[in-house]
Amino acid sequence: MRISLSGMPFWLSFFRRIPRPPGRKAYVVGGWVRDMVMLRRPTRPEIDLAVEGDAVQWGESIAESFGVQVGRVSEFRTCKIDVLHDGVPVRIDIAPCRTDSYPVPGGMPVVTASSIHEDLYRRDFSVNAMAFPLEDPFQGSFLLMDPVGGCEDLARKELRILSPASFDDDPVRIFRLFRFQERLGFHPDLQTSRALESARLNGAFLRSSKSRLWDEIQAAIREESRCPIIFRWLLEKPWENFLPSLKMSSPRRRRVFAWDRLTTYESVFSPMGRFWKETLLLLALFYGIPRQECDRGLRLLGVPEKRAKIVRESLFPVSFGKRREKTYQPDILLNISPQMIFLNLVRGGAESLASFKKTVAEADHHPLRETSLTGRDLIKEGIDSSPEIGNLLREIRTLREQGILNSRREELDWVRARVRSRGKNP
């Protein structure tokens, strides 16, 4: 099968800018190929490339052609490059063709250089195991390589693993299965369903790479179908034997829907710093779970300690009196941390959410963005403490209302002077 890029001037010109690795074979692989075969168009401005040779060396050549630098290089000699083509940001992931073997299930793989055919057989699902050779010169079309029958599985809308031990070798693939199920509307075939149940029973989840599992949580949040993906986690419960309370329930479902709506209020919650969406999701999921199980869940999901601490301190605050359940009050933005705003809103239900939205809508002279600066700006200045970010934004808001600060430049100068006066490095 040959796939033409006629009618796609953006991608035609993009591939003509990609230098071919001298004396080596290179390929387009992964989701870009899947979407071209299935939809005749890519769905995302990101692309995976594979080369039978040194991926980093080729990446440096590609980066030079776009006038950028190679990004992060992994221990497996893969690299990422963020480029701008015709004004559109494109993420390029480059990897050497390789085979993986797992001496210990769930452990780090032993990687060996290979041909493209061997590389495709190591991939997670058949629909992601197709490739387009990068021909030189580029003729404007691709000849499909499909050694494992990915096209047939696309037609059947099936997700099929390529080895019965796939989930045991790499348990993070369980979460990739859930993500692709909801994104593509596909279902696992019989072999994959049996392997999933086996992995659940033998505790494969415990052997997941914690850093890659955290990456997968972030990937799920970026999906348009993120709520269905999260509900799939709760229904399938790959952690069932270790986190019995973390399951689907009507209150948890409502909290996840509330989380999805509230993440649109970036200026309220972004002062929490990096991973604020992930942190709020964890609050929605772990609310009501016993402390010991919450600690175990945060550890098993690979949550960075700084994020885990926010979740623990928010859900299990140290109190010298009886803990009172608060509902949203209109002046709440001035009084408590973003994470407690979130918890009070999801605890209070529809009435609290409606009151919150009304307050936002009525604040037309400074609707939730009462300063020119945001939490992200303060993070760039080296301030990463959630309480300090919130305090500084409130002080800036007061100074703006008093007419003391009147521009973004003045706000930045004030922040930098304030940090210096406290003896901290900005």
From TrEMBL:
EC assignment: 2.7.7.72
A Pfam family annotated for this UniProt entry: PolyA_pol
GO biological process: tRNA processing
Top-rank lineage group of the source organism: Bacteria
UniProt domain Poly A polymerase head: residue ranges: 26-160
GO molecular function: CCA tRNA nucleotidyltransferase activity; metal ion binding; nucleotide binding; tRNA binding
InterPro entries for the chain: NT_sf, PolA_pol_head_dom, tRNA_nt/polyA_polymerase
CDD domains: NT_ClassII-CCAase (cd05398)
Transmembrane segments: none
Cofactors named for this entry: Mg(2+)
Keyword set, alphabetical order: Magnesium, Metal-binding, Nucleotide-binding, Nucleotidyltransferase, RNA-binding, Transferase, tRNA processing, tRNA-binding
Similarity-based family: Belongs to the tRNA nucleotidyltransferase/poly(A) polymerase family.
Official protein name in the record: tRNA nucleotidyltransferase, A-adding
Native source species: Leptospirillum ferriphilum
